[in-house]
């Protein structure tokens, strides 16, 4: 989609939401994961798009597909990049380069339920870092920094990472 088309779509949607805030609250597309053997899982959105994930050999997998942890980092980088591109288009900034790299470190002992000291080891990622490489034909470095900060503030995936929310767990037997 062309930059002008993105800007027009964003403006139309913002106008609708300003007039009818209730229109903004919509259910997100569910992710349906299905075990396909070993520690491999196929996850889809219900419309035919699917991705396979697997664990690395150290955790019993073949390492033949993306790991679920990598997919979470990919989501962080991709959604933040999309937010940057959306805001840039809305503001008339002509991006010439946009690359994001998400990194983290995890203590794999947590996946095994191991403990240290008085409690369990957190299996989640720590030291999460997002590097943005950005350039534009018509924006100063300061304006690009402001753009990136604004996009980080509205990225739903960044919000999930930065502001842990409880997960309601339902088990159907």
Which terms summarize this structure?
single chain, 173 residues, alpha+beta, GMP Synthetase, Chain A, domain 3, 2 domains, three-stranded antiparallel beta sheet, two-stranded antiparallel ribbon
Summarize the structure in words.
The protein is of the alpha+beta class. The protein folds into 2 domains: 31-66; 67-162, K homology (KH) domain (GMP Synthetase, Chain A, domain 3, 2-Layer Sandwich), CATH 3.30.300.20. The chain contains 4 helices and 7 strands, in the order H-E-E-E-H-E-E-E-E-H-H. It has helices at 3-19, 68-90, 141-154, 156-162; strands spanning 32-37, 40-44, 50-53, 95-106, 115-116, 119-120, 125-136. The strands form 3 sheets. A 3-stranded antiparallel β-sheet has the order 1-2-3, with no helix packed on it. The chain has a two-stranded antiparallel ribbon with strand order 4-7. Strands 5-6 form a two-stranded antiparallel ribbon. Strand 5 (115-116) and strand 6 (119-120) form a beta hairpin. Helix 1 (3-19) packs across helix 2, helix 2 packs across helix 3 (141-154) and helix 2 (68-90) packs across helix 4 (156-162). 12% of the residues are buried. The mean pLDDT is 94.
Layout: helices, strands, pairs:
Layout: H1 3-19, E1 32-37, E2 40-44, E3 50-53, H2 68-90, E4 95-106, E5 115-116, E6 119-120, E7 125-136, H3 141-154, H4 156-162
Antiparallel strand pairs: 1-2, 2-3, 4-7, 5-6
Helix pairs in contact: 1-2, 2-3, 2-4
């Amino acid at each position: 989609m062309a930059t002008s088309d993105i800007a027009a779509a964003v403006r139309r949607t913002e106008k609708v939401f300003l007039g009818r805030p209730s229109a903004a609250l919509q259910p997100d597309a569910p992710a349906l994961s299905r075990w396909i053997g070993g520690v491999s899982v196929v996850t889809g959105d219900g419309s035919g798009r699917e991705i396979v994930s697997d664990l690395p050999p150290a955790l019993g997998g073949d390492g033949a597909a993306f790991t679920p942890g990598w997919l979470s980092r990919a989501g962080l980088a991709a959604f933040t990049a999309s937010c940057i591109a959306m805001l840039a288009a809305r503001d008339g900034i002509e991006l010439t380069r946009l690359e994001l790299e998400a990194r983290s470190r995890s203590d794999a002992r947590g996946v095994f339920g191991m403990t240290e000291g008085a409690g369990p080891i957190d299996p989640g990622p720590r030291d999460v870092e997002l590097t943005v490489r950005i350039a534009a034909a018509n924006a100063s470095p300061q304006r690009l920094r402001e753009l990136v900060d604004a996009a980080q503030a509205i990225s739903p995936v960044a919000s999930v990472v930065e502001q842990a929310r409880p997960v309601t767990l339902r088990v159907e037997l």
